[in-house]
Design goal:
- The protein is α+β, with helices and mostly antiparallel strands.
- It is built from ten helices and four strands, in the order H-E-H-H-H-E-E-H-E-H-H-H-H-H.
- A four-stranded mixed β-sheet has the order 1-4-2-3.
- The longest helix is centred in the last third of the chain and has 16 residues.
- The two termini are 17 Å apart.
Length: 205
């Protein structure tokens, strides 16, 4: 289930965070993607990964196989976003599935180069900008599900100490909508699987 207006029936639109493109340019540079870059990414660091599924699950997904074949045939159409946490050591901001596909591709072709397809952020990049890119890019590429967004809201409020008002401003969302999504992760499996996808989180609640 993708987070779009069709799935949020009776719920209202959630606007993606507004990104200042000049800020992105201020803190980042374009680089080529090579096997060396791929090998220096810490894939276990999920600080900015907004997905509930793990790497093993992704690799077995038939949609992932299609993504891999698409990259092999057409190249990488959209850039990936990385943060350089130390010299030649990176974590993923956005593009986790694409980077997993590239890691698989480089197992058989070490010489492949994707020119200017990595946007690398420096260590001094503001956390808010990185968080907003993580949300914005994921909702564009492979939309966050309601459950994944619920996970994100809970993570922000419990482990990162972000206040309710901060969340409402960050995601441009109403208080009722926020609480309905935040609770979705704890719904009964039947509700998650059948009702949530059809009715949206407000009716599911």
């Amino acid at each position: 289930m993708s987070l779009n207006n069709n799935h949020l029936m009776g719920f209202g639109e959630i606007n993606k965070p507004v990104l200042d493109k000049s800020n992105i340019a201020k803190y980042s540079d374009f680089q080529n993607i090579t096997s060396n870059l791929i090998e220096n990414i810490n894939y276990s660091d999920r600080t900015f990964i907004n997905r509930l599924d793990d790497e093993e699950t992704i690799l077995k997904d038939e949609n992932f196989a299609g993504l891999l074949e698409s990259i092999k045939g057409m190249g990488l159409l959209n850039p990936v976003y990385l943060l350089e946490v130390s010299k030649n050591n990176y974590i993923i901001i956005s593009g986790w599935r694409r980077l997993l596909a590239l890691k698989e591709l480089y197992k058989v072709n070490k010489n492949k180069i994707f020119s200017q397809k990595a946007i690398i952020f420096r260590k001094d990049t503001p956390l808010e900008l990185l968080e907003n890119i993580s949300i914005d890019e994921n909702t564009k590429r492979k939309d966050l599900t309601i459950l994944e967004l619920s996970y994100k809201f809970n993570k922000l409020s419990t482990t990162e100490g972000v206040t309710l008002d901060d969340c409402l401003k960050k995601f441009n969302i109403g208080k009722t909508q926020f609480h309905a999504i935040k609770k979705a992760i704890n719904f009964h499996p039947f509700i998650k699987e059948f009702i949530l996808e059809e009715s949206g989180p407000l009716k599911a609640d």
